[in-house]
Amino acid sequence: MQEPLLLLPDFMCDLRLFGPQLPALGVDRPVMAVPMAECERVESFASDLLDRAPPRFAVLGQGLG
User: Fold this and answer.
1) Rg (CA), the chain
2) Going residue by residue through the chain (65 aa), what tens digit of pLDDT does each one get?
């Protein structure tokens, strides 16, 4: 099995953004999502993300520059 896929929607979006892709993305790997809107400050987003993430993961982000 591949490492988990971590989905990161843009600040102005929520997890519904990935709704149509979830069935295909989750076929051979676990998929988890972290809504950026839950973060208090953008400066702390990376540390908040790493606190929730498994030791190894792949990332799919949208609209993050």
Assistant:
1) 12
2) 689 998 888 777 777 888 888 889 889 899 987 766 666 676 777 787 888 888 999 988 877 55
Q: Tokens 């702390």 — which residue?
A: 44
pTM of the model: 0.73
d(CA 8, CA 44): 15
How would you write the chain as a 3-class SS string?
CCCCEEEECCCCCCHHHHCCCHHHHCCCCCEEECCHHHCCCHHHHHHHHHHHCCCCCEEEECCCC
